[in-house]
Amino acid sequence: MVVTLKDVAQAANLSVASVSRILTNRGRYSETTAKRVREIAREMGYFKNQSAADLASKKSRAVGVVVPLIHTNFADEIIKGLYEATVASGYELLITYLDDNEAHQTQVFNTLLTRQVGAVFLLSLDIPAWMMAQLTTQSIPIISLTTILNEHISAVTSNEFIVMDTLVDHLVSKGHTNIALIGDTKLTTNISSVRRRNFIESMKQHQLTTENAFFYGNDHSYETGYQSVTEGYDINALPFTAAIATADLVGVGIVNAMNDANKSIPNSLSVVTIDGLQLTEMSRPQLTTIQQNFAEIGRIAMNLFIENSIDQQQQIIYVPTKLIERDSVLDIK
Fold first, then answer.
1. Are the CB atoms for 274 and 287 separated by under 8 Å?
2. Do residues 310 and 141 make contact, with C-beta atoms less than 8 angstroms apart?
3. Overall pTM > 0.90
4. From CA 101, how far away is CA 11, in angstroms rounded?
């Protein structure tokens, strides 16, 4: 039998309106009374009908996050940050996944509209133009996470130029002039284009030309890292002395390929990664990395929505990153 608000009110000997205000943190009641009502509701097994409450208030308490079906493990950290902020503010987080299939994309879009989400968070995603237009038409606030999509949509991300500039500066300071960018370098996504462009620009600042820059890979996978030095280049005669991996998984792939060929890191090749998750500490050797604060990106993005800061104008918020030096870079000066 479903326990209703009326049942709780009768057990507490209070009006339905009073119990409703207490359970939704509205109105002024003594802490003793509020605590007693919450205990009664919990013991009776009362659960708030959020759908009915949303319908009555004409305001959804759900927000949606759209995640690429193929994603790296940093997505979990961002979702944790979003989840913490949504729970703390009384919202519900609806997680959906998006691939390249237009029928599935339509289904995801319809799910978001059916749930009447209050906002949509796009996680490292180049959303299809038609879906972007539809979301805009519906006046649903959109926040991009980890990448800047255009001049209209707010974003919470790391400063990609600082990320790349810090890594190139670090490698050059150790004497490396021939450097590879390995991972997602295909130029078909927003973030891959930005990183490739920033890599070239950072090299130029050190008077290094395109002849000093090498590129390999179409994604952020472990396999791409492994294959870069086993199939992309001759592992016994690499034309570069250092590699920047576009994700931690890529970096671990490079390290394992070198180890399998009895080539030591960093003596045979220096490796640094972008993301800085626990995986970089588990690698042997441990990897030098630029660490992004993904959980904070999620928390800040949710708070932007809660504070209604994105209804007025676009905001770009950069969350600081940190270079963590470990054992994967050799000083060859």
1. no
2. yes
3. no
4. 52
